[in-house]
Write a structure and sequence with these properties.
The protein is of the alpha/beta class and 673 residues long. The chain is 47% helix and 11% strand. The chain contains 27 helices and 14 strands. The strands form four sheets. The chain has a five-stranded parallel sheet with strand order 2-3-4-1-5, with helices on one face. A four-stranded mixed sheet has the order 10-14-13-12.
Length: 673
């Protein structure tokens, strides 16, 4: 065994000159100027994270102050010579005029009183007596107060250098008597350069990936990075490779983060569960994984927004991979993912079931819906305006008339009903597809007649295609979105028949009162008309009513199967489905026609299940379902014999017995199966 004592790399390569202190030039240059100008303060406070060179800079400054070589003969006119008796005695640990004190173990007021007594003794064979107090924030308030007077008016031969990682714990009265220097965290590139120098001196080979991993593990502290370097040498020998080091140190592989973000793009929740299982089996720290995932998302956001890859602390190969991967995301999605991971990191610290918390967080990321790109939507609107200005697109304004029809006094309490009807405006809004160019929808420009409100009111409703707000937002930003078509209103049902609902509500909150039809010959009825403008887009009627495509035939076959299955278990829902028909498939949106608004509202809550069943049965990807109301006469609605007989029976009772009619009209009587 060798007689020489092994020194860890952090001690063996500890800087002995100002120029060797890494990444703290703002401090070392100031101290060197103070030495050149002989403007040294009597007290300094060095603050900053651990392992960045605070105590090292204090030792170099103390050595430079007592160096006996003239300033003019020194390197850079400030560096200690390291050859004089004072420098050699300090490096060998036998200089009695440079005193290092650990405040963590000497923090009592008695220790400070003893220090105050020794300060009065002048230095022996040196210029000044320097006191380096490390971890000064550990002193008690009584000890700080005992030091105040000496620190404010020290002897001319005494100089104090305090070092701390927590300056906020140092009394303000102490800080005000010191010159403060804040040390910075050491950048990854500076740490790598220092590691390369150590590898060269120690005849060790290491690839870029391993050096990057060691520097990142140091987290801005060079001392920590050198400690990891010693561990890597012990694990891998003199030839350090990144892949071996990842397995040896138990560091989360960067490929795992890419695996997670790819699962987000694929909306694959199952992959997230398997990923968590892989993390747990590999023994990775869950908090470390979440922190790494947050940094990975930050890198994607930087690459997406700034295009400056220098801001990403990674190898050149990883930077290019991150830049290529970031193209698949939008800024809004990345911001949402960063928010989810930030919330997950805080929840994970106090979670009683960390694995479950991590799984739920990753599944939220996988199920994150596409945010609406407002910029794209505005750009689409601008294009439409430009096309309208050039005459390529014409915009039709349809006049929508809302009637408030009170009920006859002898039928019960007065109620109001909102209906949309204007036959004049609907006739003038007829769509002419031969005027439309191939590249954009073209709509005839027509204005509804203001006198339409004076016509005799009808009792049916004219409706346009109806989408949810989220679907309309996506349709506005998509060039292939399905278009809405106004449908003409069929003739009203016989006057003697009361208004009957087409089926029960699935929501459980069916209105308790249904508004009766308006009787045209009843002089007691009053009509209040409201008008508003609605933008109408045209639909290719030939394509909508022409021969069904192969995809639509598959969907219709699956639809009939679903209707039969539902009718066997839930007749209410099955009745609604039977009255609906598939109209068109535009991209991932399926358009379903229903006879009235009541059917559309009742089926709206079942859209997700229907889309899933249709996609599963047909092999096609149906993501959204939109409803278009096609008002039809009562006789045209298909139904079972039981439904027809029940309706006829109820209508007959209403005609024969006024009391039954009053009850139906007042309380909205419905046929319940």
């Amino acid at each position: 065994m060798s007689d020489s004592t092994y020194l860890v790399t952090a001690r063996k390569y500890r800087p002995l000159l100002f120029k060797e202190v890494v990444a703290q030039e703002h401090v070392t240059e100031t101290l060197k100027n103070a030495l050149r100008l002989e403007r040294l303060a009597h007290a300094y406070l060095f603050t900053g994270p651990r392992g960045v060179g605070k105590t090292t800079a204090a030792r170099v400054l103390a050595k430079a102050i007592n160096c006996t070589t003239p300033i003019a003969d020194r390197e850079d006119r400030a560096e200690p010579c390291r050859t004089c008796v004072s420098c050699l005695s300090f490096e060998e640990g036998r200089n009695l005029n440079i005193i290092e004190i650990d405040a963590a173990s000497n923090n009592k007021v008695e220790d400070i009183r003893e220090l105050r007594d020794t300060v009065r003794i002048p230095p022996q064979n040196n210029r000044m007596k320097v006191y380096i107090v490390d971890e000064v924030h550990m002193l008690t308030n009584q000890a700080f107060n005992a030091l105040l007077k000496t620190l404010e008016e020290p002897p001319p031969h005494a100089l104090f250098i305090f070092a701390t990682t927590e300056p906020h714990k140092v009394l303000p009265t102490i800080q005000s008597r010191c010159q403060r220097f804040d040390f910075r965290r050491i950048a990854i590139r500076d740490t790598i350069e220092r590691l390369k120098l150590v590898c060269k001196e120690e005849s060790i080979t290491a690839d870029e990936a391993s050096l990057m991993l060691i520097a990142r593990k140091g987290d801005g502290a060079l001392r920590d990075a050198l400690s990891v370097f010693d561990q890597a040498v012990s694990l891998c020998g003199v030839d350090i490779r990144g892949d071996e080091l990842v397995r040896a140190l138990g560091v989360v592989d960067a490929d795992l983060f890419f695996h997670v973000t790819e699962a987000v793009l694929d909306r694959n929740a199952a992959t997230m569960i398997h990923t968590v299982d892989r993390i747990v089996r590999a023994g990775y720290d869950l908090q470390e994984f979440v922190d790494g995932l947050a940094e990975h998302l930050r890198n994607l956001l930087v690459a997406r927004t700034t295009k400056d890859l220098r801001l990403i602390e990674a190898t050149e190969a990883d930077r290019e991979k991150i830049a290529a991967h970031s193209v698949a995301f939008s800024d809004s999605i990345l911001l949402s993912l960063v928010h989810i991971v930030g919330t997950l990191a805080s929840q994970l610290r106090s979670a009683r079931q960390p694995r479950l918390t991590l799984e739920m967080g990753l599944m939220r990321m996988a199920s994150l819906p596409d945010a609406v790109d407002v910029k794209a939507a505005l750009a689409s609107l601008n294009r439409i305006e430009q096309m309208a200005a050039k005459g390529e697109v014409k915009i039709v304004t349809e006049r929508v008339v809302k009637q408030h029809v009170p009920i006859r006094q002898d039928a019960g309490p007065t109620l109001t009903s909102e209906r949309t009807e204007d036959p004049a405006s609907l006739e003038e809004a007829t769509l002419h597809e031969h005027d439309a160019p191939q590249t954009a929808p073209k709509i005839d420009e027509a204005e509804a007649s203001p006198s339409a409100a004076d016509h005799e009111p009808l009792s049916e409703t004219a409706s346009v295609s109806e989408f949810t707000p989220a679907e309309e937002s996506m349709a506005a930003s998509s060039p292939t979105a399905p278009e809405r078509t106004p449908e003409s209103t069929p003739e009203a049902a016989p006057e003697s028949a009361p208004t009957l609902p087409s089926g029960p509500s699935l929501f459980g909150d069916t209105p308790a009162i249904r508004t009766p039809r308006t009787r045209r010959n009843d002089p007691s009825n009053m009509t209040v008309v409201e008008e508003e403008d609605v933008l109408v887009l045209e639909v290719d009627e030939e394509e909508a009513h022409g021969e069904a495509s192969e995809e639509m035939m598959q969907l219709q076959h699956v639809w009939l199967t679903i209707v039969d299955e539902v009718m066997a278990s839930e007749k209410q829902l099955g009745s609604f489905l039977r009255h609906a028909r598939l109209t068109a498939l535009e991209g991932k949106t399926l358009l379903v026609s229903v006879p009235d608004d009541f059917h559309a509202k009742a089926l709206r809550s079942e859209r997700a299940k229907l889309a899933h069943r249709l996609s599963e049965g047909s092999g096609l990807h149906v993501e959204r379902i939109g409803f278009r109301v096609e008002s039809s006469s009562e006789g045209e609605i298909e139904g079972t014999d039981e439904e027809v007989n029940a309706r006829e029976t109820l209508e007959m009772l209403c005609e024969e017995n006024p009391a039954v009619r009053a009850l139906v009209e007042r309380f909205g009587g419905e046929i319940v199966w």
